[in-house]
UniProtKB/TrEMBL annotation:
Superkingdom, taxonomy of origin: Bacteria
CDD domains: TerD_like
Protein known as: TerD family protein
Occurrences of domain TerD (ranges): 1-185
InterPro entries named among the record's database cross-references: Stress/Tellurium_Resist (IPR051324), TerD (IPR003325)
PANTHER family: CAMP-BINDING PROTEIN 1-RELATED
Pfam family, one: TerD
Length: 201
């Protein structure tokens, strides 16, 4: 289990020996809020958890806050090949990561200063229907691929998107920061402007 971060907290991805992590994996997950079972028939047929189809995406920005590229279910690899989305999860069913984004940090284009990770709901399901949304960082360049940081969202609300976290260049390395800012949008394109606002945090 990695370091548990609160909203606004950050963690350097520089190792104790001074080297930087190279290959990291961002795992994003969520659970559906179980609906109450109403009446006899509801007990037989209704209630329980519903399927939640959220989309995890990454937006790449330069130092001036200009979006340079996006990685999402319909564009699984960044233009420079350094970031790869492993595929869309249509239900959110199961434990653990629902969607995963791999980042080869040394290969990220030098013009990229920030990589912002967002979750959107194309079907407009809201975070009132979602619990336990999280974002975690796994160091795939270390033996056993340890989890180094985790941010679990505690907020719920009537919004349809969430700016979860970001990776930012810090000296010769990178820093992970938990954000947890609500937004609204169906696609990653809808989140480019709201995510720009978190770059200075």
């Amino acid at each position: 289990m990695g370091l548990s971060l609160q909203k606004g907290q950050g963690l350097s991805l520089t190792k104790k020996d001074g080297s930087s992590m190279a290959q990291v994996r961002l795992g994003l997950g969520w659970d559906a809020v179980e609906q109450p079972r109403k009446g006899f028939l509801g007990g037989l047929f209704g209630g329980g958890a519903t399927e939640i189809d959220l989309d995890a995406s990454a937006i790449l920005y330069n130092a001036g806050g200009q979006a340079l590229d996006t990685v999402f279910f319909n564009q699984l690899t960044s233009k420079d090949g350094s970031i790869r989305h492993t595929g869309d999860n249509l239900t959110g069913a199961g434990d653990g990561d629902d969607e995963t984004i791999m980042v080869n940090l040394p290969s990220v284009n030098g013009a990229v200063q920030h990589i912002v990770f967002v979750i959107t709901s194309y079907s407009q399901q809201t975070f009132n229907q979602i619990k336990n949304a999280f974002c975690r960082v796994i160091d795939d360049s270390a033996g056993g691929s340890p989890e180094v940081a985790r941010y679990t969202l505690t907020d719920q609300g009537p919004y349809t998107a969430m700016i979860m976290a970001k990776l930012s260049r810090e000296g010769a390395g990178w820093k992970f920061t938990a954000i947890g800012r609500p937004a609204n949008g169906r696609t990653v394109g809808d989140l480019v402007a709201p995510a720009t606002a978190v770059l200075a945090q």
